[in-house]
Amino acid sequence: MEYAVLVDVTKCIGCRGCQVSCKRWNDLPAETTTHQTDWTNPPTLSYDTYTHIQFKLDYNKSSDTTTWRFLNWRCMHCQNPACLDACPVDAIVKTGEGAVVIKEDRCIGCKYCISACPFGIPQYNAKLEKVSKCHMCFDRIQDGKEPACVQACPTDALVFGQKTTIIQKATQRKTQINGYVYGDVDNKPLGGTGFIYVADVKLQTLGIPEVSEQTSIDIPVMTNSKLLIIPAIAGSLFYLAAWRKRRMEE
Amino acid sequence: MSKTKEVKEFEYPPKVTFSGVLKGLWQTSKLDVLFHSLMAILLVTGLAIDLLGFVLGGALAPVRQILHGYLGAIFTIIYPFYIIKIFYTRKIRMLMTGINYLDFLLYTVLIVTGVTVASTNQIWVDNLPWLADALSSLRQYAPSIHTITTYVWLLISTLLPGGFLHGIATIYLTSIKGEND
Predict the structure, then answer these.
(1) Residues 62-121 in A contacting B (C-alpha not used; CB under 8 Å)
(2) What ipTM was assigned to the predicted interfaces of this complex?
(3) How is chain B split into domains, by residue range?
(4) Count of CB contacts below 8 A, A vs B?
């Protein structure tokens, strides 16, 4: 059964409870950060930070008002993940529950997934030569629990459930607030996402990139390009046979 | 009294042996030995990662890191010197075909995309902002271009005799044991 998480931007208060619970559940070390003018802290995702809250200050010139919005940001757990297709060693899998998981023991640190992900999610550790990202707490889900970030959210800005139910909730909420959905309703980036956003503004204005429904064409071309080795080997064998024949004749 | 110098009978075509090729290449140019050895290692390790990755998985990590990564970095450093040598040595230039020049173009693509992949999310590139800027636009497509170019090069340089066929020919000829081997 496939699950999803609804991220209601209008309910998030930026408490960073999801960040802390993610660190606790995954036993991730804290990071030394610097003060940023936009308050996002840590400023970016990293090998040791799977999720963080992006602080977005929106200034409306006509009404001279400012509005804070807080965006929970981590792996989108796409239906057709580009990172999975790009991985040459099958270190990335999509579980039956919908989570996209990196198997660290198989990861060779080639960083192909980093280049492939249109959301810029996978993070590389140069010392360990490995890549990591949010795994949607697949271990908790398989144990009948909700992801750690969802459990910690005090305002129900994060809601976990079956994907069909979450899509319904997202659609209802969109109507309630006359807002926008990003993920699996109005548009389906990479076939749809496991984290579905609802906000009172277009999500693209908060920095979520426009991503097409299909994986970038270069990835399937790359995975199929290995077929070119067949004519190359055939050609080599042909030449070898020709050389041998000529040698035998000599 | 005049001395007659004994001249060993010369055989044509000469017997090409593995040890003979290596000795000759080493005596003629150490840069050539380095270039060809690294190229062979990079090609074999690259193909191993791409073709056997689904079986070998994490066991390929040191192969990717050391044999493909660090040796790739050394190859990147010596490559310009090799190219300069090629263009400044008349004898070698006379042996070059159009496909060989195409090979060099594809090696250059492989080097640029390889460096781009290596620079993704790496700390060392933070110290070289000009390089990070230069490679940033290529970053998304670098892995695909790197992989596709490898197979395209394999195909082109086999069917239209180029670098790969030259490698195959060398292996074939040196695999035939000579009398002096």
Answers:
(1) 86, 88-91, 103, 105-112, 114-116
(2) 0.87
(3) 20-175
(4) 122
User: Which amino acid does the sequence have at A184?
Assistant: D
| Min distance A29 CA to chain B CA atoms (Å) | 19
**DSSP H helical ranges for chain B:** 18-28, 30-56, 61-62, 71-88, 90-95, 98-119, 129-136, 142-159, 163-175
- Distance spanning both ends of chain B, measured CA to CA: 38
Q: Does the pLDDT at position B26 exceed 60?
A: yes
Q: What is the rounded distance in angstroms from the CA atom of residue A201 to the CA atom of residue A208? A: 12
Mean local confidence (pLDDT), B87-91: 86
Q: Please report which helix (H) or strand (E) contains residue A3, including its range.
A: strand A3-8
DSSP state string for B25-73: HHHH-HHHHHHHHHHHHHHHHHHHHHHHHHHHGGGGHHIIIIIIIIHHH
Euclidean distance between the first and the last CA atom of chain A, given in angstroms as a whole number: 69
Whether chain A has a CB inside 8 Å of the CB on B128: the answer is no
Cross-chain CB nearest to A232 (options B49, B139, B158): B158
| Closest among A61, A218, A18 to B146, alpha carbons compared | A218
CA triplet A170, A175, A180: central angle to 5 degrees?
Answer: 65
- List the structure tokens of B14: 């000469």
Q: Tell me the two tokens of residue A10.
A: 């209008």
Q: Average pLDDT, whole number, for chain A?
A: 92
Mean pLDDT within B152-161: 90
Indicate the range of B108-117, B132-141, B168-177 predicted with least confidence.
B168-177
- Of A121-135, A160-174, B18-32, the poorest mean pLDDT is in B18-32
Residues 6+ apart with CB under 8 A from A37: none
Mutation site for A-interface testing, chosen from B144, B171, B172 by largest number of A Cβ within 10 Å: B144
Could you tell me where the beta strands, DSSP code E, fall in A45-126? 52-60, 65-73, 92-94, 100-102, 123-125
CA distance B180 to B175: 13
Residues of B in contact with A103 (CB under 8 A): 57
